[in-house]
Design brief:
It is a single chain. It contains eleven helices and five strands, in the order H-H-H-H-H-H-H-E-E-H-H-E-E-H-E-H. The radius of gyration is 35 Å and the shape is rod-shaped. The chain has helices spanning about 10-20, 45-65, 225-230, 245-255, 260-280, 285-300, 310-330, 365-370, 370-390, 400-405, 420-445; strands spanning about 335-340, 355, 395, 400, 415-420. It has a domain at about 310-435. Helices cover about 35% and strands about 5% of the residues. It has a three-stranded antiparallel β-sheet. The chain has a two-stranded antiparallel ribbon with strand order 3-4.
């Protein structure tokens, strides 16, 4: 039994918009699936034949506009585009108006459908491998089991489209509108979904192995296969207006023991909420967002990189060594002092009063040589760095003090203390270092940002 018509009903407003070259989201209701037959089934369609089909289809749409968008189901219209099973390999259908056309099982390999209007079109099981569908309007189109391998769907409108079991391996879906799209069991391995809109999309049992989700609006109604999205790229950069799906996905990762992926989702959730607060929040919310950005995102990216605070701590050892080196070369009350322990074993070594540590070159002939000056300079750098190390690890309580443990590694029994502004700088370094070390431990062994 041949297909009797392209659609049962087309909204009047939708027809007006489409005839004028615009787009719509509400149009037709799919007719029940019938056996795929048509005048071009299994045949290559020539350019002249395709032109005639498109002209007749356009006239049919215009006549529907006059009739208020109504068609009679018992009176099939031959002008309605029926390209079922047609061979349209490499065909140029750029900006073509194929609203509600029948392209079931059509071969559109490498066809140019850029900006084409395919709203409510039947493309079930169609071959669209490497086809150009950039900015095409496929709202509520039926693409069930269609082969879209390597197809270019960048900025395409696929809202409400049926892509169940469709093959989208390596397809370009960057900035595509996939709101409310049915992607159940779709093959999206290595698909490019950067900045795609996945709000209310149905991803149950979808395969997103190595797909790129960088900047995608991730708010689907159902999650894809966890083992495949776990290997997707850009998880840390997904966005949302509400984090329900992202939180659900993070919990699924945790349950599966995928700690790294869970951390990426934690970063995505917190950083997105932080940006939202910064853009639209009150002064208090913006202040809190700035606070979180400085203390949590810059330092460890909300627990994604628990080792990063330790790297910061290591860099600060060198940074704080600079003012300490300056203190060794300046005069005044501020400085670094060597204090010999009163209970030292060797009383003959050292003295009872504190000795100020300086970078001055001694007057000995050996020290006056170039080599001697270099040795003295390196010695002062080492003292500055060593004091930075002690300041950073003045952490602990009574005997449990990391700094005192480090000082036990030196061969002589003395300690270094600071006065004046050097003491203030040392105190600041101690506070920052304690925070960084604690943050690293907490984020590595726990999940404080979940």
């Amino acid at each position: 039994m041949r297909q009797r018509m392209c659609s049962r009903h087309i909204g009047l407003v939708g027809v007006v918009v489409l005839v004028l070259g615009g787009e719509t989201t509400a149009a037709v209701e799919h007719a029940p699936q019938e056996p795929c037959t048509g005048p071009y089934a299994g045949k290559p369609v020539t350019a002249d034949e395709l032109k005639t089909v498109l002209e007749k289809h356009q006239q049919w749409l215009e006549d529907l506009l006059v009739l208020g968008g109504k068609v009679k189901e018992d009176e099939p219209d031959e002008r309605c585009a029926n390209l079922c099973q047609a061979n349209l390999t490499g065909a140029n259908l750029q900006k073509a108006n194929l609203l509600s056309a029948n392209l079931q099982k059509a071969n559109l390999l490498s066809a140019n459908l850029q900006e084409a209007i395919l709203t409510e079109a039947n493309l079930q099981e169609a071959i669209l491998t490497e086809a150009n569908l950039q900015e095409a309007i496929l709202t509520k189109a039926n693409l069930q089991e269609a082969d879209l391998t390597g197809a270019n769907l960048q900025k395409a409108k696929l809202g409400g489209a049926n892509l169940q079991k469709a093959y989208l391996f390596g397809a370009n879906l960057q900035e595509a509108d996939l709101r409310d799209a049915h992607l159940q069991e779709a093959r999206l391995a290595k698909a490019h979904l950067q900045k795609a809109d996945l709000r209310w999309a149905h991803l149950q049992k979808a395969n997103l192995l190595e797909a790129n989700l960088q900047g995608a609006m991730f708010e689907p109604t159902s999650l894809p296969i966890i083992s495949t999205i776990a290997r997707a790229e850009g998880l840390s950069a997904i966005t949302f207006s509400l984090p329900f799906a992202a939180v659900e996905l993070r919990e699924a990762f945790k349950k599966a023991g995928l700690r790294e992926q869970a951390r990426q989702l934690t970063y995505a959730i917190n950083s997105t909420q932080q940006r939202q607060a910064w853009k639209t929040g009150t002064f208090s919310a913006r202040s809190e967002a700035l606070f979180k950005w400085v203390l949590f995102e810059l330092t460890c990216q909300y627990g994604w990189f628990p080792g990063r605070p330790l790297r910061f701590l290591g860099m600060l050892l060198l940074v704080f060594a600079i003012p300490y080196r300056v203190a060794l070369s300046t005069k005044g009350p501020a400085g670094i002092w060597m204090i010999w322990l009163p209970d030292r074993v060797s009383k003959s070594e050292g003295q009872e009063t504190p000795v100020r540590v300086t970078a001055a070159v001694t007057v000995s002939p050996a020290a006056c040589t170039r080599r001697g000056r270099l040795v003295q300079h390196l010695r002062s750098l080492w003292i500055a760095f060593y004091f930075s190390l002690l300041s950073a690890f003045q952490i602990g309580w009574r005997e449990l003090n990391v700094g005192s443990w480090i000082s036990r590694l030196q061969p002589r029994e003395y300690t270094l203390r600071a006065t004046g502004w050097v003491r203030v700088v040392s105190g600041i370094q101690s506070l920052v270092s304690v925070y960084l070390l604690a943050l690293s431990v907490l984020t590595y062994f726990g999940a404080p940002f979940d």
